[in-house]
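Friendly challenge for the regulars: who can give me the structure tokens for this chain first? No prize, just bragging rights.
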Amino acid sequence: LRVLRLFHQCSQLMMLARGLIDSMQLVTWIALLMFMFMLIFAIFLTEFIGNNADDFDEPDQIRIYYGGIFCSLETLFQFVCLDNWAWIMRKVTVKYPLLSIVFDTYISFVAFAMLSLLTGVVADHMSEVSDLQKDHEEKMKTQALEEYADSLRRNSSFGDQETMTRAQFETIFQEDQVDFLEDIGVHVLGHQDEFWSCLDIAGNGCLSWDELKSGLVRLRGDLQPKDMLRMRCAAERVARLLSPRGGEDLTL
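First reply, four minutes later:
Bragging rights claimed.
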């Protein structure tokens, strides 16, 4: 149970475990494909080498490594791990040098290509899990920010009003009240004037609580391409209203 608590407390470790679990289905198919190739090579090596062990200088060693299908599979798995594979291969290639082509082909395909594919699949799933984890964290922060905006209204002396003035707005964001916003990436302290100017679109000196909440949500995080597109579309609509020729030239 303590180990499971450790997984929940360490987000990076939890993300790694989720990535491994999510990729197990595809990893299983890759492992099955590797086993099929190993079985094909094992049958060939057993028939060509194991059954003719007496033709070699050390027949007992040949039988240990190639005396049967399971022995050949174990040897080929040792090749995949690159564990002393050159010494085992030379036991055979001394008599049949052309068999080095078979061993090199097997190592190149199974040990390098298949393992690289396996690594790529796991890494790809890790990236997907990481993106999902980041999206979840962003949603949680956005939800916490909306709840914080609601709490500002409940705790303020003018929360029963639908709108607030500039002076009331400044009393909300005092230095001792914005620590939470700074922690989740909303930098308001020292930028109250700019924040008010962005939210007070009508320029009437009043701001609703809903406008404040949506402004706080939009203020956090980096600028996304869709935000740029939204600003461009809004600028084009305004330009079309101002110019009968259309606003494309004005926005370029």
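Strands lie at 163-165, 206-208. The chain has a mean pLDDT of 76. Your move, everyone else.
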